[in-house]
Amino acid sequence: MQLHGKHDRHRDFTGHTLSPNPDELTLRATALAVERAEKALKDGQLLTPGEALALAGTSEARKDETLYSIARAVAWETGANPDEVLARLGAAFPEMT
């Protein structure tokens, strides 16, 4: 979203406003999530939300990842805010949102 020529930090697909000064935990969790998303993308196992919806309920979908599933897992493991991790992951992979 753009207002009067200024960009805000709002991520359209999450509705979450990114913190301008993330804490160390968020930065570590985001780095881990980006690493996992890059691997899933390289392995052909990263789905867009539309692809995940189309495959929902199939056994094929269980082996694949979405940005949401990666962010949720990393946040659970690290104790980071899942909304913040997902928004930052979406910013790193806008084509997958």
Description:
- The chain is mainly alpha-helical and 97 residues long.
- It has one domain (2-96).
- The chain has four helices and two strands.
- The protein has helices at 24-42, 49-55, 67-78, 82-92, and strands at 2-3, 6-7.
- It has a two-stranded antiparallel sheet with strand order 1-2.
- Strand 1 and strand 2 form a beta hairpin.
What's this entry about, in short?
The protein has 97 residues and is mostly helical.
Which labels suit this protein?
two-stranded antiparallel ribbon, single chain, mainly alpha, 97 residues, 4 helices
The averaged pLDDT comes out at: 87
Give Rg in angstroms.
Answer: 14 Å
The number of helical segments is 4
For the biggest β-sheet, the strand order reads: 1-2
N-to-C span: 16 Å
Main pleated-sheet profile: 2 strands, antiparallel
The total number of structural domains is 1
Overall form: globular
- Class of secondary structure makeup: mainly alpha
Share of β-strand residues:
under 5%
H/E series: EEHHHH
Element layout with pairings:
Layout: E1 2-3, E2 6-7, H1 24-42, H2 49-55, H3 67-78, H4 82-92
Antiparallel strand pairs: 1-2
Helix pairs in contact: 1-3, 1-4, 3-4
